[in-house]
Structures are given as C-alpha cells and as structure tokens.
Design a protein that fits this description.
globular, 4 helices, mainly alpha
Length: 146
C-alpha cells in the first residue's frame, strides 16, 4: 500500500464521517466522543496488525516509517469513528436489541468479506503467512466463496 493510497482512503473515510455526522444529527459532544473512540480503536487496530505480523500470520507490504505509521493510524482512526456514531444512534433509537441485530449483521458482513478476500495469497499489499490461522482462514474462505 502506498502513501498516496492511504491518504486517498483516509479522505474518502473523512467524507463518510461528515455524512454520518450529518445523518445521525450528532452533537459536538457526540462527535468528540466518537473521535476519541476512533482514536482508541485505531491504536488497538495498529497493535493487532503489529501482533499478527510478528506472529507470522501476515505481512504488510510497506515500510514501517514514522510518517507512514502516523498517516496509517490517522486513517484507521478516521475510518473507525463513524461506527461509533451509528451504534450510538441505533442504541438510542432501538435499544440494546437493535444494537445486537446491527452488530450481528455487521460482523457477518465483515467476516464474509474477510474470508472471501483471504482466499488469495496477496491482497492490497498484505501477504498471508503459512501459520495455522491463515491456513484455517483460507480453508474457510473456500467454503464461503463457493
């Protein structure tokens, strides 16, 4: 993944964030809370990427410089912020049941997309390793994509 791609995707997610802010009618306090949540989730995501790379489960194919990691982290934080606003609105409107239904649907959508994409050995600058986790994901992806 190149620097230009990271910046492009971050800008696209920023547009999505603005749309979600408008559609959820979020207050300044809600937006700030979602930004803090997105920043925390971005740190967690970055830690998960580093952990999985150290375990040999995959390899991210870009240089781990301070500049790249900063814009990658900002991209993660911006892309994860809208989900906080959406789940906040769903919880306020439909209660815990609506939030549970949304979580199940969203997790199923993400898992299906992940399993479908892991079917190839190199996707979007990520190469899977030879450990048990990537092998199981590839095995499962064959079931899902058929």
């Amino acid at each position: 993944m190149t620097t230009q791609q990271i910046i492009l995707w971050t800008c696209a997610y920023l547009v999505e964030l603005v749309a979600v802010i408008y559609l959820t009618r979020a207050t300044v306090r809600g937006v700030l809370g979602a930004l803090v949540g997105g920043a925390g989730a971005g740190l967690l995501g970055l830690g998960a990427i580093v952990f999985c790379e150290r375990m040999g489960w995959w390899q991210v194919l870009f240089a781990w410089t301070a500049y790249i990691m900063t814009i990658f982290y900002l991209g993660l934080a911006v892309s994860l912020t809208p989900i906080d606003l959406v789940t906040w609105r769903l919880a306020r409107r439909f209660g815990w049941r609506g939030l549970a239904v949304f979580t199940v649907i969203d997790d199923h959508r993400r898992a299906t997309a992940l399993l479908y994409r892991v079917n190839v050995s190199q996707v979007d600058g990520v190469r899977t390793g030879s450990g048990s986790c990537p092998r199981q994901c590839r095995d499962l992806s064959g079931i899902v994509s058929r």
